[in-house]
Amino acid sequence: MALSKIPKSPQLSCGDRVLDLSKPQLMAVINVTPDSFSDGGRYFRDGGLHLDTLLSQVDAALRAGASMIDIGGESTRPGAAPISEAEEMARVLPAVEAVAQRFDVVISVDTSTASVMAESASAGAGLINDVRALRREGALAAAADSGLPVCLMHMRGEPGDMQRQPHYEDVVIEVEAFLRERVAACADAGIPAERLLLDPGFGFGKTLAHNLALFRRLPELCAWGYPVLVGVSRKSMVGDITGREVAYRMPGSITLAALAAERGAAIIRAHDIAETADALAVAAALKGF
User: Fold this and answer.
1) Which of 264, 288, 260 is nearest to 279 (CA)?
2) What was the pLDDT predicted at 35?
């Protein structure tokens, strides 16, 4: 891959908190949606947000080893339909506010919507995690104004159609080209390289063969100095390899998490926190952290 190389930094400023990237960090998934593929309806059901359940899960995740909480209000599972800006805001903002008030943790907001980025930053979020890499209207400006770091992810198409026979001539080259273009767009918008993270987007518009090709060459992306986020937890990639349904994909997920950390990933996004934390501790020990 041929992104402009930047000096690696052991610290990432996330609002009023600093994330230590000298060792792999663990991001806990909290989807305040009724329809996410793994935990949909756990924290948002019957048309409302169940804050007690959410806060209890955040507390458990932090005790188990998470250092970041990723809150998302719009499902991006394959086949998911978009929701309105108002609906996403109603789901996400109360969750961000509640977590920020109660816990000393970096809050990541999984959103592509400019207004949600801006309001979440004001409410205490420390990172923007955008599966569309700031391509929605107003997202670049909102991210720049927030002053927060941004994770740019590759996705071919939209969640509603991304898994309909995705095709690449060379998936690694094409993902790299997309990320290079988005890094340049961020620079033009006033977002410096030091605030950027990259995510190759496992499972987003990719077959198992595409995912495996990207995973094998993950060290090439990590070598350019941008912190790399990897999210493979419970995904169809794991199911395709193991033949397991979503509820039984934890062993495969933590295996991939450890391998991603060994290959240089800075942040692992996961559902099974205690188990993944153990896997990352082993990977970190082997790398000498």
Assistant:
1) 260
2) 57
The answer, yes or no, to whether residue 130 has pLDDT greater than 60, is yes
C-alpha span between 26 and 258 (Å, rounded):
11
- pTM metric for this prediction: 0.91
- Active-site pick, 91, 195, 234, 235: 235
Alpha-carbon dihedral 90, 92, 96, 98, rounded to 10 degrees: 50
Give yes or no: 235 in active site.
yes
Query: If pLDDT is split at 50, 70 and 90, which confidence band does 41 have?
Result: low
Distance between CA 215 and CA 234 in Å, rounded?
A: 16
Set out the domains of the chain in order of their start, with CATH numbers: 23-282 (3.20.20.20)
The span from the CA of 282 to the CA of 258, in Å, is: 8
Active site residue 136: no
For range 88-105, the mean pLDDT: 96
